[in-house]
From TrEMBL:
Name of this chain's protein: Netrin receptor UNC5
GO biological process, one term: anterior/posterior axon guidance
Transmembrane region(s): 364-388
Protein task: Receptor for netrin required for axon guidance. Mediates axon repulsion of neuronal growth cones in the developing nervous system upon ligand binding.
Organism for this UniProt entry: Takifugu bimaculatus
Amino acid sequence: MPALLGPVSRCGFSAALLVLWTVFAGFSRAGAEHAATATLPAAFSDLLPHFQVEPEDEYIVKNKPVTLTCRSTPATQIYFKCNGEWVHQDDHLIERTVDPATALPIMQVTIDITRQQVEKIFGLDQYWCQCVAWSTTGTQKSQKAYIRIAYLRKNFEEEPQGKEVALDQEVLLRCHPPEGVPQPEVEWQRNEDILNPESDPNFFVTADHNLIIRKARMADTGNYTCVAKNIVARRKSTSAAVLVYVNGGWSTWTTWSSCSAVCGRGWQKRSRSCTNPTPLNGGSSCEGQNIQKSVCVATCPVDGGWSEWSKWSACGADCSMWRTRECTQPSPGTGGKDCQGLDLQSLNCTSEQCPQTVSGAEDVALYVGVVAVALCLTLLLIVVVLVYRRKKEGLDADVADSSILTTGFQPMGIKPSKPGVWAPRPRRPPLHSKNSHLLTIQPDLTTTTTSYQGTLRSRHDTTGKFSMTNGTLLDPLPNGSHTLHNGKLNPDPPEFVSRLSTQSYFKTLPRDVANASYGTFNFLGGRLTIPNTGISLLIPPEAIPRGKIYEIYLTVQRKEDLRLPLAGCQTLLGPVVSCGPPGVVLSRPVILSMDHCSDGCLDNWALRLKKQNYEGVWEDVLLMGEELVSEPYYCQLEAETCRLFSEQLGTFALVGESLHMGAAKRLRLVLFSDAYCSTLEYNIRVYCMDDTQEVFKEVMQMERQLGGRLIDEPHILLFKDSYHNLRLSIHDMPQAHWRSKLLAGYQEIPFYHIWNGSQRYLHCTFTLERLSLSTCELTCQLCVWQVEGEGQSFSLDFNIAKDTRAIDAEFMLMDSSATALAGPSAFQIPYLIRQKICSSLDAPCPNGADWRMLAQRLKLERHMSFFASKASPTSVILDLWEAQHFHSGNINQLAAVMADIGKQEAMIFLVSDGEC
């Protein structure tokens, strides 16, 4: 019917038709049809409408309406139809213009579509609108424009998950973005920086939005986030941590070291390190040994030897004949000495063999010159002798030969010459010497040994240093000179005691120093102990020379204050202990006992004893297993204790170097908590310390100051040299009452912090939060383990408000024994009984019932060579027994050993203290 409104109508008629059309439109099925009419020139009456602008798809964002536009030329009317329904005329906005190029009329119509319209009719289904343009020739329909409500859900359908990957491994991170309209775009971020696959071809984003890292690099370690966005919103997934680790690889072996033996059988070693590459980010360490040892045989030096002399040559014209020999039996080799002596000999021929020659004038002149020189030398020698004798006669008669002053310190002996053996002729004394008898004094051969009785004294002012007083060897004379007593003691006991009482002693240690002990000792010896540390110093009888009194101290050094050089796989295995004063004279070794935390297997370790010298530099003084009995230090390693025999006092430390990954340190794991909890937070502290008593004592003292309490028995963990960290985590905690404030799933202590051993103790704190103050019961499980290694777990179940368990009492530091014991009270074996045992067992016995059997019965046969190097092997064995069994020793067991050996001296143990 709109086709009837052609160009024939003009003003009034067109208006009438428009009214009729409007009435007709009112009776349409939707009541929303409208008409926008216009008259067209006759020249364009046969043209169909052409759309210049068609409606396009739109998205409704939140509550903002969208506008659809339709433009056509030539057109008498334009209308919109949405989802099959005509849009009401009042909802159209009409605009008419003329195309300047063609003079055709242009009609543009716009409508607004709201969110309510779309939701009311079709909900979230598709909603479309179409534009219809009319002309006198016919109609044209535009394309459909779909109107959708835009949205973006909050939750991702699949989020990326964290991964630990090896270097150069491919990584796939999945991401399925939230549902949204329009379809959301996806981009990836690493540490909040947008990844651009075009600039970095190592990254690739698939069509389904997954991220692929073709070859993981160390720089690719980070937090990856999937970001989805459209016109409505921008959503981020949870971050996925990608950890790129590096598995360790061995470096090449170093060259073999030189053979340890100069001559004969020895050993050499080579090493490699796990640095090619170095393990990173928890990567596995290298498998196998980092040190290899090999037996080597060093060629011994061969000293050269002379061959037989050759036959004499014929007599020559110079009336001499020759013979030679060579250094070929054997020839010197491998640094051996060359032959000593001449390889050529000459001999004058007899007159019969020598060819006769006539001496010329030159030979006569030569002989005269030789005789003149000999006469001059003879006269010069006579003058020198005369001058020397005059000077000797003019010496002061009061000055004695200084050699007699040394006889008190060094034994002297003059042996007569054997018949037939050349001996120097004794020189006659000067004829005019007043005190010539002093030069002919014979030493007292009845005194076989000499000793210096008394303490040492410096020549200069010794304020604050070790006091040295005059001994009995050099007594002052009124005229300032000295006389000699042949090293014998003054037999007057009161004078000896009074002299000792006036001596001054070494004072280096303040009286209020913690973790230290000191005492005054003489030749009877004694013992120093630092309570609750396992550290003690045994001073055996006769270790301090008779007549000397020393004040000796024993203390534990703080590891943080020392710069102990540790390299490679070395670790500190025990406390750093000082005993002194340094430089005191000892007649026999003292025994220093201290704890260690190695696994006790010497095959796994190269154990070294380090000593700090006077300049503060640490030096290696002993390698365990390669001790020399001639050295002043010797070690016995027990399961948990190291006992050092030392002839010198100083500062010592036991350092271990692991030979392979089987080496392990013992760690003591201890749990403490708050004694009182009045808030919602509750702390559990886990200490991971070396398994030595002195560290445990320090932690206990610190926790007492903090008001903490021990909540479980300590556990022992073997921590291996595997480059893996120590990991701690808490599990099985009732989520309805407790929660952990730890952001990660576990805590870690780095490997080198533990292995180095230079830190006193390490600990981690777990902060828990109870959801109500009425919650007092705590049940959980705390696990401590070395990554890819052994572990320990603590099952906790107690009341935080009132814990009545007596765990604290069991581990309280209650040792109140004396720190210093001097004389017989320091030993279990009485002094006189000890002397009888030594005299009985020191002498070799044909059936072996001597000190060797005593060492075997006490399971000390490993140290036979060390005992044999001492003047009294039995006394050293008894010293070690005293050091081992001071607190727990049973003297009856020692008596049973003596009886087993077959010595009747076993009965002497039944002697009472009064009889001793």
